[in-house]
Design goal:
The chain has 177 residues and is an alpha/beta fold. It has a single domain, classed as Rossmann fold. The chain is built from seven helices and eight strands, in the order αβαβαβαβαβαβββα. The strands form two sheets. A five-stranded parallel beta sheet has the order 2-1-3-4-5, sandwiched between helices. Strand 6 and strand 7 form a beta hairpin. The protein starts with a helix and ends with a helix.
Length: 177
């Protein structure tokens, strides 16, 4: 990733293992990420989010108190630019129910824990490079869960007219504000 793009990142690490968070924080700082903060629990994360704007969040499913899925849903419902920030969701076991839980709570990317430095940096790059339109409805707030569009569909694209649809350009404008 280009250095100037990395310098625009402000990343919140919400991991259950404080030592892992500190090690990954060092790796991100070496990669010239502008700001990296780690939170020990949901209350600490909320407190830090009141003081600082984060445009990328890394959260682990075992994150203390609320857990990652509920915290991810909470983030998506806030009235801040962080509600559209890419969220990297870490799971401990590659089970279908865990992947679906991460997808359904509004995560942008799902990774298997423990997370290596290379995986984290690569996933951050992919989350920005592969941003998807954002959907805001009564039952779901998060990136469009459809990974690819079917090339054989020739009917009207109804989702673009749907209330709650936010384009990638609009998300980037909000995150850069």
């Amino acid at each position: 990733m280009h250095a100037e793009l990395l310098q625009s990142f402000s990343v919140m690490l919400a991991l259950s293992n404080v030592q892992t968070a500190e090690a990954l924080k060092g790796v991100l700082m070496q990669n010239r990420v502008r700001r990296v903060a780690s939170a020990k629990d949901n209350q600490d994360a909320i407190s830090q989010m009141q003081d600082h704007h984060f445009n990328m969040i890394v959260i682990e499913e075992g994150f203390p108190y609320l857990g990652a899925a509920d915290f991810c849903r909470f983030l998506r419902l806030t009235n801040t630019p962080m509600s559209v920030a890419p969220i990297i969701y870490g799971i401990r076991l590659a089970e279908k129910k865990r992947v679906l839980a991460g997808r359904d709570c509004g995560a942008s990317k799902i990774v298997l824990m423990p997370l290596s430095a290379g995986t984290l940096v690569g996933t951050l790059q992919a989350a920005v490079r592969e941003m998807r339109p954002f959907i805001q409805t009564m039952s779901y707030n998060g990136p469009d869960r459809r990974i690819t569009k079917a090339k054989t569909y020739f009917g009207p694209e109804r989702r673009k007219a749907q209330h709650g649809f936010m384009s990638v350009k609009e998300q980037q404008r909000i995150l850069d504000a």
